[in-house]
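Lab meeting, action items carried over

1. Structure of the four-component assembly. Owner: GW. Status: complete.
Input record:
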Amino acid sequence: MANPKSEILQQLKRDILTLVLKPGSILSETALSERFEISRTPLRDVLKQLELENYIDVYPKKGNLVSYIDLDSVEQIIYLRSTLEKELIKDLALQMPLKGTLELNRIVALQEQVMDRDDAHEAFLELDDAFHHTLFTLTGREFLWNLIQQCNVHYIRYRRLHLLKRDKLEALLQEHRRLLDCIEHRDLDSVDRLVMQHLRGDIHAKYLQENFAEYIQS
Amino acid sequence: MANPKSEILQQLKRDILTLVLKPGSILSETALSERFEISRTPLRDVLKQLELENYIDVYPKKGNLVSYIDLDSVEQIIYLRSTLEKELIKDLALQMPLKGTLELNRIVALQEQVMDRDDAHEAFLELDDAFHHTLFTLTGREFLWNLIQQCNVHYIRYRRLHLLKRDKLEALLQEHRRLLDCIEHRDLDSVDRLVMQHLRGDIHAKYLQENFAEYIQS
DNA sequence: TGCCGTCATCTTGTATACAAGAATGATTTA
DNA sequence: TAAATCATTCTTGTATACAAGATGACGGCA
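Predicted assembly:
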């Protein structure tokens, strides 16, 4: 292991994003320092970063709580991503590097493959991320992708909960196919509608509030 | 003073953004702890935050340097902001709260007033920020504005250097007026072109590289 | 002269003792 | 019995001593 701090950071992030650590859970400095066999000082660095990326809320002299899902920021991130990605897709439709089409098709093909696996949801979510990430890398907007990741903790958990119940993997896959069609056939006019449908089509705050109220920010 | 840490953070941020602390300057923990009469531990918290918001680069066991201006991320932030803000303006054109028009007009009027002052640049930049900030608050996108602020250190310094030489305050003010016109007359078709001109019209990387090479990232 | 190794002294990174606010529960008092 | 107060024991916040990597200067040596 190269750097224990980044290992711990990655693990805590993963546990929070996958809801292994539920919103409201307490992350005590002393408990974590014993668990990871490291002193409180480097551990506080990790917690500081988790705080700045909204994974936890720090209540001075009281404790650190895993943040509750903030539906307002989820809505705004979806607005940001849909606005941005429909622009990216139009850019790609006008000037797409060859390897780009190959890469996106490869991802969609993989998504078809994992549909029947036991851990379909898990694998599908990862590939969905890969698809959108590729849109950013192909247009040279890696910086913006990283920026979005920095505030993505609410959206990622929201999507995970949302997908748990309503099985719409097939629909999402179909939408990816349609977006690829737009790029390959330079069909700029359909992009806006498709992106809106793909990213904003499934905002059902009420569903989450009814079924996962204990995870939601008041 | 409520919290010394946030005071120190704000002051260092301000010094870096206004180029009082030049890119490449060293921020030593011990020097700062003596200057602010505080121990290294809380000071490291401040430096950690500056690092995560790209104000400084940390070289382990060597030192902390004020970051150089990264022109690539400047370009991407401008892309992000122009894409986002032209959408916001269209939203406002379709449904503008009354107080919104008043507030934006008030800011533009203030900009006219400060044009002749000695510190015109300083005051104008602040009001320019206020204008764009208002676009976000009126549409309920405060979260996105804050997100952009988190990675704005390169863009803010870029714009400051850029405005130093080419005196285009009058042009910027005129563009604000035109954008307001679009909103008030629901002229959606002109928005894209105007926003592009306003935010992206003045990307002159070469000018900066020639005149401020010592501030630019290699 | 030129090169190499050692050491002194910077830097940040870590561990730990102590300070101080917050919460909980017990004890005392009305 | 109920309420209030105090003390205990959590929590994080701070100061500081020490560890360890990086750097540069100095001196020895070929």
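2. GW to write a short summary for the group page. Key points so far: The interface with chain B takes residues 41, 44-45, 48-49, 52, 72-73, 76-77, 79-80, 83-84, 87, 141, 143-144, 147, 150-151 of chain A (CB under 8 Å). The mean pLDDT of chain A is 92.
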